[in-house]
Design brief:
Elements: H1 22-49, H2 51-69, H3 85-101, H4 103-114, H5 120-123, H6 126-146, H7 148-157, H8 169-186, H9 189-198, H10 204-209, H11 211-225, H12 231-266
Amino acid sequence: MRLPRRQAKRPKLASPDDRMTLVEHLAELRSRIIRSLLAVVIGIIVILAAYGPVLRFLTKPYVALCKRRGPEFCVANLQYLGPLEGFTTRLSIATYGGIVIALPVIMWQIWRFIVPALHAKEKKYAIPFVLCSVFLFLLGAFVAYWTLDKAIEFLISWAGPDVKANFQISKYISLVGLMIAAFGLTFEFPVLLVFLQLVGVLSPQTLTKQWRYATVIIFVLAAVITPSGDPYSMMALAIPMVVFYAVSVVIGLIAQRRKRRAEAASG
């Protein structure tokens, strides 16, 4: 009788000089994806359990706008046109919310997948990386939610003076989800810049020299990325990005000085 084979454990990499095989890379990626998906599923269940308050929270900017501008401008009660639209909308909200709830786990899994390629000194940034990523995504989501009523008011106004808005719930939730995703992911920009400086791909001196071009690119990207296309959301996205760019350069300079002092002390 043959005993079942024990599954081989993934080798621990002591340094970036160690190498994983392609099969080991794929196995590692699969495990990280599965853990992230499990976290998203748990988040979806949580949102489904609290669906009513979550829906009222998401529709609050639109309802407040309709109350402020009056029924001749927009109808506060969102509607659905198809028999399955209510169900699919509930699933969409649960999926968006589940991803947000699972974000710390997702960012941790991303970092753990990247870690084998980093040196020991760079691995110590794991906790700051996860915390900053989650905080900045939530900050971007808050800015998107804060500008939502202005964006919707701008879009309705462009329809003409004799047009009254009466939105479908699915279309409204899609816009809210896209706004939150666009702002949240874009607000991760400084984390990427700082990371690239820490691993030596970019230098703060290079970023300082290119700040004019970077500012123009940021405003162009903000105009393209903003789902609503209104100037309020575009400025609310572009201005923090410029500030984040400057903060990233400052953090890079501080890290560079500390690295030089440590090398001088050890040398």
